[in-house]
Amino acid sequence: MELAKLKITKRQTLAGQLYGQILEQIVSNTLGQGERLPSEHGLATAFGVSRPVVREALKKLQEDGLVEARRGVGTFVRRRPPEKLIEFATVDSVAGLMRAMEARVTVEHATARLAALRAGPKDLARIESALQRLEETMAVRTPSVDSDYQFHLAIAAASGNEVFVDMLECTRDAIERGIDVAQKLTREGTQARLNLVMREHRQIFEAIHAGDAEAAGVCMSHHLLQARTRITDHAESA
Amino acid sequence: MELAKLKITKRQTLAGQLYGQILEQIVSNTLGQGERLPSEHGLATAFGVSRPVVREALKKLQEDGLVEARRGVGTFVRRRPPEKLIEFATVDSVAGLMRAMEARVTVEHATARLAALRAGPKDLARIESALQRLEETMAVRTPSVDSDYQFHLAIAAASGNEVFVDMLECTRDAIERGIDVAQKLTREGTQARLNLVMREHRQIFEAIHAGDAEAAGVCMSHHLLQARTRITDHAESA
Amino acid sequence: MELAKLKITKRQTLAGQLYGQILEQIVSNTLGQGERLPSEHGLATAFGVSRPVVREALKKLQEDGLVEARRGVGTFVRRRPPEKLIEFATVDSVAGLMRAMEARVTVEHATARLAALRAGPKDLARIESALQRLEETMAVRTPSVDSDYQFHLAIAAASGNEVFVDMLECTRDAIERGIDVAQKLTREGTQARLNLVMREHRQIFEAIHAGDAEAAGVCMSHHLLQARTRITDHAESA
Amino acid sequence: MELAKLKITKRQTLAGQLYGQILEQIVSNTLGQGERLPSEHGLATAFGVSRPVVREALKKLQEDGLVEARRGVGTFVRRRPPEKLIEFATVDSVAGLMRAMEARVTVEHATARLAALRAGPKDLARIESALQRLEETMAVRTPSVDSDYQFHLAIAAASGNEVFVDMLECTRDAIERGIDVAQKLTREGTQARLNLVMREHRQIFEAIHAGDAEAAGVCMSHHLLQARTRITDHAESA
Lengths: 238, 238, 238, 238
What we know:
The structure is a homotetramer of 238-residue chains.
Chain A: H1 14-27, H2 40-47, H3 51-63, E1 67-70, E2 74-77, H4 85-88, H5 94-118, H6 121-139, H7 145-158, H8 162-169, H9 172-188, H10 191-209, H11 213-232
Antiparallel strand pairs in A: 1-2
Helix pairs in contact in A: 1-3, 2-3, 5-7, 5-9, 5-10, 5-11, 6-7, 6-10, 7-9, 9-11, 10-11
Keywords (chains A, B, C, D): DNA-binding, Transcription, Transcription regulation
Domain HTH gntR-type (chains A, B, C, D): 12-80
Protein name (chains A, B, C, D): FadR family transcriptional regulator
């Protein structure tokens, strides 16, 4: 890890900047998969920041599945994101995308479950229509961010609970940026990868349509966690 | 059920109005616990609305635990809310309070779990400080809506995920109105009831403080579902 | 629906027999997808059983996703299982397989989560070894029931909680019969289908290996619910 | 921590024995709440065991909420169980009781949910009858282990899934031993404590009776996690 390359700017919290700079080293393979990071003390000294700042940055990287702490041994690189990640998203924005994804897994597991129990014919038509537009754009390898968002929003509306709709709408920017990055990474991958992503969406719709609440909730969680893995693991985005 | 008493106004969806008017009959005991509601056809005729409108109103009453449908038999009153409910909240607003509660159970189960895993000393101090203010105001039987909201907001902040904070903040009005109604009903009850509500809050804090994610999530869900029951069941609010 | 074909034997509860006979009509397409079943009264008369028996059989068919009740309209065929189902399993045993699957979703969601948190190197080696044997036998289209069971048992052992191991072992017969049917149906399908099933297993292992509890739990639930769908939906088993 | 007091016998795994002996020191207040345990190296040397054995014992103590690891600082006593615990249960058996409790939280959350959706009048009568017997014996401060177990078993039967019943029955010994210890500790506490435990059981029944699946599941999890806390935390058992 060439510490000399790292520089602290003033746009973000120190921990946020440190997160981004370590992320950059992982993506660029300067810090290889399985490699040990410098100690807390080493990182604090190298960056001229306090150890609490180092700990906060490492904690977030661990929460996002990028590094892992082994007790009494140190912190190691767990996953290397695809190289294109930091072309499609600024290094500073990745932690935010991960937080939005985490919140979506919670909220949309519930909306999919409830939609399976409560969706009426109009709700189903709206979900399917967004799905069809998404599939058409994916078929020609130019997936539409708006169609993807509208698919998830229509499911929230079908939950019969406007509060869930408000919750998605008030975090729409972060959600759409996450969709945008995930779609761009998917387009870099094989056709088989694209087919899997289409299949994930279709399964959610089918479980809701069949009124199968448990399957709808699990298919939604599975889809969002897979999307997160495609963002953080270069092997999965192939 | 004296249908003549019911009147349709223009402020809300028809289904929303019908929900409110049936609720009023249940609270006032015009429709007693265990009693069968008129048939879909009967309700549609009496109110001069279509059957889909009747079905939507009944569905929401069922989702909120106020009535239950028995297949091939009809729809029955399941729970009678405390009489004071429609003094503390307008009949029109109750369905909205229930929706906010449902969304909170989902989101705050997650924030409490994550707070148990991620809260630092400052987060814990902020949660405990809001709890203490809430307990002080409850001890003199004037619970503070703001302290209650701040307690839940501090837990969301301790989850380390700003998106959850945004989700609570953007539905703050509905959350605070729900807290207000629940607190007013609690004040009508016995001291034993007040003690139980204090205990629920304290248990959430203790599970987070102990780093016990599963207990923190379950204590939070339990607290919010109990609050919902206190709003919808006169027996529980005693 | 040709009611004359149905006959009551004495081996099972009446509701269990009725379940099996309606299932047979659905699989054989005598009762087509989307078609309405006779009324409760009609079924009771045709089979010479009481209405509670009819209701119990319909309830179980609904729980298993095979029929759906639409309020005030009737009960309809929701999914048609693959024709081979009643070649690979006796009609009488299908309800039991579904119940075992339901219990597995609950228990194994927990074992996969805990394994991600607690598995040591030996646990991981044991899970991977069972996975490799399963993949080798799937590659030549003769998946091994024992390897599949051992994969799931090794995950339970890795949860560090022997009680979960006991729970799987004491229902091993039902679990292995379910695996056997699912595998036989998978072998009837395309190579793409077989690859998907292999992928589901591999994802569970990878999430456990990465220490990602949430993903491990969700991948496990998703895998088991997909297996259930492959048993009950001829379209999904293609 | 007076290490000289500790002795290794041959009845159990080394990690299991070490767990029991550290537990004994915590219960007896030799190791006080908040106090730091000796280092891994220190424990390994003192007991003449390998560090992996020490790590396994500490991991189980942490999973059971008795100690907590603070990264880079050490392991600390988190909760002190009531002194009577090691009178009512052998030191060797406590880890097993905790594992049974963990499995029950998973399985019985599901059985309570499903019972709320599926219980018929006979199921409800059976659950209520066991509850009444339990309440009668608790009222005279001699709670019946069998009634408590039968209450939980009747809920599993009401789930309509025999596999869950089998899972409880095949771990019945461990479950009953856990109930026995929890009840004995409850009897040591105040009448207020006893009333709370009765209330927890009654709430589960009421949620199942009301057909409220979410509340039934959460009330069950909450009850079992509270029971676990009463076993591991002397403050909660007062």
